[in-house]
Amino acid sequence: MRKKLYHGAAYYPELWNEETIEEDLKLMVEAGINVVRMGEFAWSSMEKEEGKIELDFFVKVIEKLNEHGIETVMCTPTPTPPIWLTHNHPERMFVDGNGRVMGHGSRQHICTNNAHFREKAAIITEEIAKAVSHLPGLIAWQLDNEFKCHVSECMCETCRDLWHQWLEERYGTIDHLNDAWGTHIWSQYYHRFDQVPQPVATPFLHNSSLKTMYQLFSYEKIAEFSDEQAAIIRKYSKAPITHNSTTFFHVNNERLYENLDFASFDTYAERKNFHSYLFNCDLWRNFKSGRDYWIMETSPSHSASLESHAAPHQNGYLKAEAVAAYALGGEAFCYWLWRQQRTGCEQPHGSVISAWGKPTVGFENVKEVEAVRKEIQSIILASTPLQAEVAITYSDVAKAFLKTEPHDGLDYRSLVIDFYEKILSAGFHRDLIPENASLKGYKLLFTPFIHYLSEDYLIKATAFVENGGIWIVGPLTGGRTAHHTIHTDAALGALEEQAGVETLYTYPMDGTESKGDFMGLVAPLSIWSSVFEPKKAEVVGRIQDGISEGHAFITEHKRGKGKIVMLGSLPVGDEGDILLKKCLTHYAEEACVLVKTDVSEGTIVAPRAGKMGEVIWVIVNMDGKGGAVTLPNDGKDAITGRIVSKGKCVIGPYEHKVIQF
What range(s) does the Glycoside hydrolase family 42 N-terminal domain occupy (predicted)? Predict the structure, then answer.
């Protein structure tokens, strides 16, 4: 059972003298910081010269923190290899798609697949684990920092050799690869695996199979590095292990967290993009089922580097972020960073304390977060997020497919977040779930923008339908094979038979003046679309105008106790938002979705279940405009203890209320 909610910050004691560290500890206590993360960039401080590892300093810092009631998340320092590991060793460095070899001086400049790097990384990780695992203040581990944040797929010689091994393990024979990829096109046929190139610069585009498979290869290799580090730590420590990731990075988060103990993410969404912030909370809650997530990094005011900056938070917004995080399943809310960097490329970044030791513009907001943490802690610890009935499948594999085939600049993450926002603003409690997640407990499932649907997913989703669920498929879903090629039996492969349709055409609706009509609502249609001919399905949305007028873009097909709904195109604009929300609410009502509120846009309700069966609503305004929601029954304000009557409940800008029914 959890004992507390954490309120933390990233700390770099190796950059400061002993007097400053003492000052920091006192200020941390004043600000309510009860956990710090450290060590991820400190390799040169731990091992200034190769083979001479000194960790006494970090042991003493952890002990001092613990004396002040502050616990520690210890990191492995592998994102910033020291100069002795990189100087005069271009063969160890990351190589981008244009053949440029990275130089020393930032981070992630080395190839994490390089054997010499792996050896040295294993040694430093093991020595850290030996040195600090027994310390009472150590509560968790973080591996590295933001895998594949600044880089994507490496094209070095090490990766080339591993790529060929990976292909042989995946395809078995070169004939199988040639057949799967269709390599006779443009004379791309290969005689041996070692002839298959990396997707480096070419006069035009690469074969889609090659480019997507190389991304999946890169996903797997970074996850293997994570697994290797975790295995070393587990020899010495029972503390849980995580990694701080996001959907921006070039990783498969579902695979990455497979062998870790809990999930954590970094977020720097501005207030105007608060739905992106909530998107991460609803996704990371589901990467490690049954274990609360951590927000490992967010700014107390603004993010910035030497070249850019984001808008600072308005007063009150940080508190709203924290309440939402804890209410949606977060165990920790942590800042990057505690004390402003006096050097380096992130000097202007927002912090809790300035480089000269004074409170920053965000300091009072941090104190507000600590006050609200104490206020809601007992309520959050005694309850869990309520099971959502609406789920959206999220897939980093789909992100790779769309990176290879973006059509006219489509971006998977942006598409999914926009789709998610429609469900959020309609007042539904929702989960974002990885591809391999269970569908138990859900009533309505969305699968948008996933080019390739695996056989396992099809079987699982069809069973969900036959047991009474409604599955809305598309847009831009199902049209590619596992090898990123086009189906030859039907445009959407086996999905078509399941959905009772035949896809007549697939083409981009943009520029065709096509409109879609669903239940009397009409909206322009966009992106690469599928046009359907019903076989067993019923047409519920027809195309108006354009080059496929009269044909279907939405169908529904009853299977067992449920229904498959095909959404062949994306309605856009204000009319499109209205149409999509109508589609959502119509099928949610049909699926008997009950975990929903009429909360006003810009405000959320995070429903939680208490130990005695009570339902708790954590209501938070996120847009600074205030809001309202209808309470279905009389309840009790869990903070003040006052009875509240059913009916309209008004909430002020960035305010929160906790209502127990």
Answer: 11-372
C-alpha distance across the termini of the chain, in Å:
24
**What is the rounded distance in angstroms from the CA atom of residue 152 to the CA atom of residue 346?**
21
**Is the separation of the CB atoms in 76 and 229 below 8 Å?**
yes
- What per-residue confidence (pLDDT) applies to 429? 97
Q: Which residue has the tokens 């990780």?
A: 125
Q: Where are the alpha helices (DSSP H) in 591-623?
A: none
**In a shared domain, residues 448 and 425:** yes
In 429-479, alpha helices (H): 455-466
Tell whether 436 and 555 lie within a shared domain: yes
Closest by CA position to 365, among listed 377, 374, 352? 352
Tell me the residue range of the domain where 619 lies. Answer: 603-660
Are 540 and 610 in a shared domain?
no
The pLDDT value recorded for residue 2 is 67
* Chosen domain end from 567, 590, 613: 590
Q: Does residue 514 share a domain with residue 454?
A: yes
pLDDT of residue 3: 86
Same domain assignment for residues 558 and 582: yes
Task: Dig out the tokens for 251 from the structure.
Answer: 């990783």
- Please tell me the predicted confidence (pLDDT) of residue 1: 46
Low-confidence ranges of the chain (pLDDT < 70): 1-2
Residues marked as catalytic = 146, 297
Report the C-alpha gap between 618 and 379 in whole angstroms: 10
- Prior bond of 337 cis (ω within 30°): yes
pLDDT at 636: 97
The domain that holds 406 is classified in CATH as: 3.40.50.880
Distance CA 254, CA 573 (A): 32
- Residue ending a domain, choose from 555, 590, 625: 590
